[in-house]
Write a structure and sequence with these properties.
This protein is mainly alpha-helical and about 260 residues long. The chain folds into two domains: about 120 residues; about 140 residues, Serine Threonine Protein Phosphatase 5, Tetratricopeptide repeat (Alpha Horseshoe), CATH 1.25.40. It is built from twelve helices and no strands. It starts with a helix and ends with a helix.
Length: about 260
């Protein structure tokens, strides 16, 4: 899953750098996008981990806590005269120190795990596989119709406002090959490859689809962007590459060559 595209927006949200409209759109998308919601939660945990690991924050919390305990001296606090520390305080102090260490260790693991979540195996904007994505030019099927939401979706899609296009397409009650395909295309351009793949799959599950070849090819590309070792995607790629009559035969040969170069 590609979380990197979300990171900048999530940071802006937590740093309160968004406009009122941007914040409302972000919070609305949180409710409809499981991927964004998950990424946001991971980011929130990482911020908490960083706060917990902050030396100054730990010192401040420890200082406040110790001031509430009679006879317990604050760390690094200068002494004007010796202070008697009751025996029970030794045990309490030891327990507190152990708790701090445990929390710090736990926070470290959370922080590392979160960093890995955002960065490891995430498709980047210069991923060579993006060059193999199929985008129809002057598609005759993409035209106005009787549905106002579809007309608005076309306008937003052509203007590269893919989030708005998705919103309008999802308002259409009866989906078809065209709506599913361009829903997949919109998700792809937003680098939400998982959602794009799901919409392409819906077309593949529909017999006699007019977008079957295009959706099938982009399903392969999105699958490999998510995981280069996807067995189903690699099998489909080999099948196309073995048949010169396939529409995406040439692209399949080039894509396979690219994958071999990466091995």
């Amino acid at each position: 899953m590609n979380k990197e595209p979300y990171l900048k927006r999530i940071e802006s949200y937590f740093e309160e750098q968004m406009s009122v409209e941007e914040k409302q759109n972000f919070e609305s998308e949180l409710k409809s996008s499981p991927e964004l919601s998950e990424a946001t939660e991971k980011y929130k945990i990482s911020r908490q981990a960083i706060d917990l690991l902050s030396e100054e924050a730990l010192r401040s919390k420890l200082k406040d806590w110790r001031k509430k305990k009679n006879g317990i001296v604050t760390i690094n606090e200068p002494l004007e005269k010796p202070v008697a520390i009751p025996k029970p305080a030794t045990k309490v102090r030891s327990m507190w120190s152990n708790s701090i260490r445990k929390m710090a260790v736990a926070a470290s693991f959370i922080l590392l795990a979160t960093a890995a979540y955002f960065l490891i195996d995430a498709p980047t904007s210069n991923d060579p596989l993006l060059a193999y994505f199929y985008a129809p030019e002057g598609d005759e099927k993409l035209r106005s119709g009787g549905n106002p939401d579809w007309n608005l979706a076309i306008e937003e899609f052509n203007n590269k406002n893919y989030k708005q296009a998705i919103s309008h397409i999802q308002e259409i009650k009866s989906s078809n090959d065209v709506t599913e395909f361009y829903l997949g295309q919109s998700f792809f351009y937003l680098k939400d490859y998982k959602s794009a793949k799901e919409n392409y799959q819906k077309i593949l599950d529909r017999p006699g689809s007019s977008y079957r070849e295009e959706a099938g090819w982009n399903h392969i590309v999105t699958s490999l962007l998510i995981d280069r070792n996807d067995e189903v995607a690699n099998l489909r790629l080999d099948r196309i590459r073995a048949n010169s009559r396939e529409s995406f035969y040439a692209k399949a040969k080039e894509l396979k060559k690219q994958l071999r170069m990466e091995e």
